[in-house]
Amino acid sequence: MFKLVNCFTVTASSSIYKTTINQLSREFGKNIPRFSPYEGGPLGFITHLCCVDEKINVEEICKKYDYKMGNPTKILIENNMYNSNYTIYNTYNKEGPQFHLQSTKEVFGEGYNH
Predict the structure, then answer these.
(1) Residue spans per domain, the chain
(2) 18-50: per-residue pLDDT in tens?
């Protein structure tokens, strides 16, 4: 089985963050793929890449917390990858898939405790 998700960036609108990225991601749902830092966001601001079920109204949540949302890209992933054991990454490739999910254990090792 597969799940359709939106991959998009979020950037806090002001230099004083009223809501942390962790708080924002909790609004997107429980046990979702982990976000990752995104290179290439606006200068002076911290930008993150997120992966959220396409049924979640992420635009409304971002507006509520004063986060600027980048254009979403829909990708199809396996259902078993939609959890916090996976992290979304940008491939930085000009051709082919722009984003991919990777197991946290592959990145940090088997003993990683999140």
Answers:
(1) 2-108
(2) 778 888 999 999 999 999 988 766 666 789 999
For 71-84, the DSSP string reads PPEEEEEEGGGSST
Distance CA 86, CA 40 (A): 22
Question: Model-level pTM?
Answer: 0.83
**What's the topology of domain 2-108?**
Alpha-Beta Plaits (3.30.70)
Q: How far is CA 81 from the centre of its chain?
A: 13
Q: d(Cα 39, Cα 32) in Å, to the nearest integer?
A: 21
Distance separating alpha carbons of residues 86 and 66, to the nearest angstrom: 26
- Cβ–Cβ under 8 Å, residues 54 and 84: no
Token output for 24 = 């924002």
Which residue has tokens 């979640």? 56
